[in-house]
Specification:
Elements lengths: L1 H17 L7 H13 L1
Organism: Bradyrhizobium vignae
Protein name: Integrase catalytic domain-containing protein
Pfam families: rve_3 (PF13683)
């Protein structure tokens, strides 16, 4: 059960944030991830 949740979460994170955004710094990536998680 946990494994399926993590695979789903990772897939969604990759599809909705990481594949669409080119980060220029670690700080920018952290901010974007924080906004994505709050959504």
């Amino acid at each position: 059960m946990q494994n399926a949740f993590f695979h789903s979460f990772n897939g969604r994170l990759r599809d909705e944030l990481l594949n669409e955004t080119l980060f220029t710094s670690l700080a920018q990536a952290r901010i974007a991830l924080g906004c994505w998680r709050a959504d």
